Amino acid sequence: SDVYKRQVSTQSTWGKFNRKENRPMHLRRAFLTGFVNFNRRFATRARGSLHPLLGEPKYQSDTKRVQLRGTVLQGNYDYLPNLIFFPEAFDHLENWVHFFRDNGILDYRNVWLVQPRNFGSSDRHPSLDLSEIADDVVRFMYENHISTATLAGHGFGGKVALATGCYHYERVSGVVNIDTAPIDHRGFDAFRELREYVRRLSEVNLRRSRHAIEIDIAKAVEDPKWRTIFKESVVKVGDQNHAWRFEMDYLNHNLSFNKADSIGNWTERYGLWGGRVSFIFPEYSRWVNLNTNTLAMLKVCIKCRGFNRDIFAIQGEENPLNHWVYDHDEIAVPVAKKFLQFLRHYDGCLLYTSDAADDLLCVDLGGRRIIKKKK
Q1: Which backbone phi and psi does 89 adopt, to 5 degrees?
Q2: 3-state secondary structure of 152
Q3: What is the pLDDT of residues 79-96, one digit of tens each?
Q4: In DSSP terms, which residues pair with 84 in a beta bridge?
Q5: Which residue has the higher pLDDT, 374 or 91?
Q6: Greater confidence, 352 or 346?
Q7: In what order do the strands lie in the sheet with 311-314?
Q8: pLDDT tens digits, residue range 152-175?
Q9: What are phi and psi of 4, to 5 degrees?
Q10: 49: burial class by Cβ within 10 Å (0-12, 13-18, 19+)?
Q11: Nearest to 53 by CA among 135, 122, 116
Q12: Which of 11, 96, 124, 295 is most buried, taking the most CB atoms under 10 A from its CB?
């Protein structure tokens, strides 16, 4: 510990803290070196600010060259660990910003909002096999100097998070799934509706005015939320043409055929997750059947402790739009509360001895000592 203290004292960032007055309480939890290295790069940026990961999507013939992109939400404190979040298929990262900002999650994590391959600004590739997407995530972590992170996701993004944990256990400290389960969704009514929407939209001519395109989207998509998402997915390219913010051809082909790598599927070959997990979903979810689908959670996640411990059904009215938890405060608030409970008490963060932070100015937030916010 004495060697560690001498190393810390030589670092200019850490040397700013007063070591004589207001002797701090010990830092009970700290995190891997990769967390600290990343946060130094963002040390001067405003708390809670957005930092897009710039880059245009590229078509890759080699799956090992696929790069993921998204946005970083800087946490409210220095030297926080990282949370990587994946949204539902076709959903936009911007829809989740207020969920993380308004519910205190940025007090505990830097949040990386990342799109899987073929969505948003991430690269394109025909395969949507979760084993390959899991490799994309680890490659993204390596490129951004993230040693270990909490992974979370909504819908299809939840499957991406869980599959990454199954394939790369050593890089994931915990997994949070929102309104999804490790099951085959291809027979669900909600998935069949989405598949039909995408099929209809694949026939829409984008070489017209935006107004004409939105009229066709409104005719093709009955669900109001999906209609809004698809309208917002149309971007202008050049003077006359428009394009989708996702790769329509690959995704339509993936959804139309009963393929093993369908974004609605989950197979046993993805393996088991041996770390901590939290499943959170609305009581009347169209994507998780409260009576039957929860058995798969216990089967895939060997440390899952069951209902009201790691599996939470958020009570509420039966609403076909409750899948979009961030749009409904009566669902978003309890979901965020369970999310925070997992981050604060159950996430598999590593421990340092108290000597590692004996002289650092810290503040206690819910049982966790973290470095105090700069003024």
Answers
A1: -55, 135
A2: strand
A3: 899 999 999 999 999 999
A4: 112, 151
A5: 91
A6: 346
A7: 50-52, 69-73, 110-115, 82-86, 149-154, 172-178, 277-282, 311-314
A8: 999 999 999 999 999 999 999 999
A9: -60, -40
A10: exposed
A11: 122
A12: 96
Q: How confident is the model at residue 51 (pLDDT cuts 50, 70, 90)?
A: confident
Residue 214 tokens read as 């939105």
What residues contact 374, with CB distance under 8 A and at least 6 apart? 78
- State the burial class of residue 360 (Cβ atoms within 10 Å of its Cβ: 0-12, 13-18, 19+): buried
List Cβ neighbours of 322 (8 Å cut-off, separation of 6 or more). 282, 284, 285, 316, 328, 331
What is the value of pTM for the model shown? 0.83
CA nearest neighbour of 262 among 81, 124, 133 = 133
Best CA proximity match to 48, nearest among 104, 115, 120, 121: 104
| Spatial distance between the Cα atoms of 122 and 109, rounded to a whole number of angstroms | 23
Q: Which of 343, 271, 327 is nearest to 84 (CA)?
A: 343
Q: Determine if residue 138 is left, alpha or beta; phi over 0 gives left, psi from -120 to 50 gives alpha, anything else beta.
A: alpha
User: For residues 45, 46, 48 and 51, what is the CA-based torsion angle, rounded to 10 degrees?
Assistant: -40
Percentage of the chain lying above the pLDDT 70 cut: 80
Q: What pLDDT, on the 0 to 100 scale, is given for residue 210? A: 93
What does the DSSP assignment read for 265-300? Answer: ---GGG--B-S-EEEEEETT-SSS-TTTTHHHHHHH
Radius of gyration of the chain (CA): 22
Q: Select from 270, 251, 307, 266 the least CA-distant residue to 115.
A: 251
Q: What is the DSSP letter of 263?
A: T
Residue 363, pLDDT score: 42
Here the tokens at position 92 are 């936009």
Q: How far apart are CA 360 and CA 9, in angstroms?
A: 10
Residue with tokens 């930092």: 51
The span from the first CA to the last CA of the chain, in angstroms, equals: 29
